[in-house]
Amino acid sequence: MSNSSPIQAIVFDWAGTIVDFGSFAPTTIFVEAFKQGFNFDITLAEAREPMGIGKWDHIKAVGQLPGVKTRWIAQFGKEMSESDVDTIYAALCLCKKPKSRIMLSRFLMPLRW
């Protein structure tokens, strides 16, 4: 079989490009971590807003969003502390592991091709 195309390969950043358009998987993990750590609800939009920074800093940034900050103070009577961020971060690490294995197993077939 002859290939006359000058293109030999295409490389994709699958996260948000091919597999998870809109990057719902990472934002869902943050929503779950806040829920698990403190039974506190954040929206997908709030979880997505500081995307692109380290996870611990991401949690802290979500806690400083005006709407989140107001609800946090209403629920807990104080602003989110670094200790609170640590608790949510620990929950995030627990939320991430099983889902990562499930997600990876779903996409091994294309990689084997």
Automatic annotation (TrEMBL):
Its cofactor is Mg(2+). Keywords: Hydrolase, Magnesium, Metal-binding, Schiff base. This is phosphonoacetaldehyde hydrolase. It catalyses: phosphonoacetaldehyde + H2O = acetaldehyde + phosphate + H(+). Homodimer. It comes from the Bacteria. SUPFAM superfamilies: HAD-like (SSF56784). Involved in phosphonate degradation. One of its GO terms (molecular function) is phosphonoacetaldehyde hydrolase activity. It is an enzyme of class 3 (hydrolase). Its EC number is 3.11.1.1. The keyword Cell inner membrane does not apply. The keyword Metal-binding applies. Coiled coil: none annotated.
